[in-house]
Amino acid sequence: MLDGTPDAADAAIGRIVLEIKDLGERHGWGPTTTRSLRERLLASHDADVKDFLAALEPHRPSRPWSLLLVGVGELVLGAFLTVAGLVLVVPAILGFTSRGEVARYLSDLSLGLSSSAMSDPLIVALGFGFALFLLLAALYTLRQASRSLRESGLVPPPD
Questions:
Q1: What is the pTM of this model?
Q2: Do 10 and 43 fall into the same domain?
Q3: Mind giving me the DSSP string for 3-57?
Q4: Which residues, given as ranges, of the chain have pLDDT below 50?
Q5: Residue 140 within a domain
Q6: 70, part of any domain
Q7: Residue 1's pLDDT is what?
Q8: Does one domain contain both 81 and 130?
């Protein structure tokens, strides 16, 4: 058991350095070892491991409030991208109030796809592709927001 003195801390650090050297000599620093080390350390939810990693990166101190603000901003951006993507994909959000208007919209869309002119189907396909891009961007942004909120400590890590 360590007593918290500087000598005990130096001895523990010395053991860590020896273990790192031993790991490198036995297994090398190839992709398998590196990936395993990253997974074990970076994905750890242990407070001591997180404190150890934070001590190795003094240039990037943990600021929970800034991570919280980033997470909230990403949530707002994700919501905006989701609504914009759905507006382009779902015609009911465009203000159609009756089934006849939706049917007319779909028939105009299908007539545009069946015409011999290439511009109408291309515009429809580009619009649909852009809507899918917005929805995928929204999902990615919400994923980043989840990560930021987890790092801020506001949201507990998944079990």
A1: 0.46
A2: yes
A3: -S-HHHHHHHHHHHHHHHHHHHHHH-S-HHHHHHHHHHHHT---HHHHHHHHHH-
A4: 1-2, 118
A5: yes
A6: yes
A7: 46
A8: yes
- Residues 69-104 as b/e (b if ≥16 CB within 10 A, e otherwise) read ebbeebbebbeebbebbeebeeeeeeeeeeeeeeee
Mention every residue, 6+ apart, whose C-beta is less than 8 A from residue 156: 150
Could you tell me the residue range of the domain that residue 19 belongs to?
6-56
* Cα–Cα distance for residue pair 107/17, rounded to 1 Å: 71
- Are 39 and 29 in contact by the 8 Å Cβ rule? The answer is no
- Which two three-digit tokens encode residue 48? 């001591």
Question: What is the spatial distance between Cα 16 and Cα 117, in angstroms, rounded to a whole number?
Answer: 70
The tally of domains found in the chain comes to 2
Question: Has residue 42 been placed in a domain?
Answer: yes
Gyration radius from the chain CA atoms: 27
**Inter-CA distances, 12 with 54, 92, 154, Å:** 17, 65, 32
